[in-house]
Structure formats: C-alpha cells, structure tokens
Amino acid sequence: MDANGNITAQTEMFGRRFRLISYLDPDVAVGVQGTADTGYTCGVVRMSSGLDPANTIFTGFPVPPASGTWTYLSIVWDRDQTYALGSNGTNAILTKLKKNTFAGSPLQCYTVTSPWFVLALMPDPPPPVVPQYTNLLLDCSESNTSQGNPILWFTRNGGDNQTWRATTVGPGLP
What we know:
CATH class: Mainly Beta
Order of helices and strands: EEEEEEEEEEEE
Number of strands: 12
Strand order of the largest sheet: 5-4-1-12
Shape: globular
C-alpha cells in the first residue's frame, strides 16, 4: 500500500475495505445501484453527489482455482457480502453468492502504473495458470463520468476508462 492508502497489489485487497476510483476523475467511484428484488448493477457514483457512500465500498477475498497455484480475486459488496462483482455477459452486476463461499466471478488485477490497474473478468472456472489478459475489463461506459452511467465489462482497448485504483476505507467509515 502506498502512503495515500492506495492498494498496490492484488493480495492487499484480501480482507480489506476499498473503493474503486476511476482514472478519468478522482470523484468517480464504482457504485451499486438497484435493489435485491430488481437486481443490482454497477454504475458511476460521483462521490461529491451526496448519495450514500456505503454503496461504493467493497471487500476483496481470495478465490483459489480448482487446480494450480494462482489465486484470483472476488470483490464483494461491503454492505451485503452475499453479493459479489460479476457479469451477466456484458454489464457489471452483483451476483448472489452461494452461502459461505466467496466464489463470485473470478477477477484478476493487472498493474498499469502503480497504483493504477485494470480489472479483468476471468473465465469461470478460472484456468490454473493466469493468462496475460482476458478480453473483458471493468469499463466506465463510453468514458462517461455522469452519475449512474453504467460500469460494464468491455473488450480491452487501453482506454483511461478501463483504469482504476483501489483506495482503502477504514472500518466504520462510509
């Protein structure tokens, strides 16, 4: 972790509360939208908007592969840890976890320039050896930083809208 509380390695996310902040704008975080009845999706939350900041806090957990030694990442919504960041094919959604597991969609961080990284959606089940990249990265749709803009899984394009940092959030802080 650096002096500003930015996580600099995937393993530093394990068991730690954090926000995913966009390279496009330090006021833009990944946030949870929707309800348990309608389903949760992820979208832009402008931290200055005054909306509930707890919807932008996540916790990371290790996800060991079925075989091999590489450990993947599961990003769980801190407000309700029965939901993890996942996919319905295109949209970044929160998927309901099975009881007593953290096996949401397996994810992998790849450092661009510390503390900035891309977050890749891995195949499920994940391979025993991590590939350099998968095709789908967490993406601020069309580089639009407006409140509520969708956060998607999109083909890697090298854009700033696919670059993130994880900033730690202390216990009990919104």
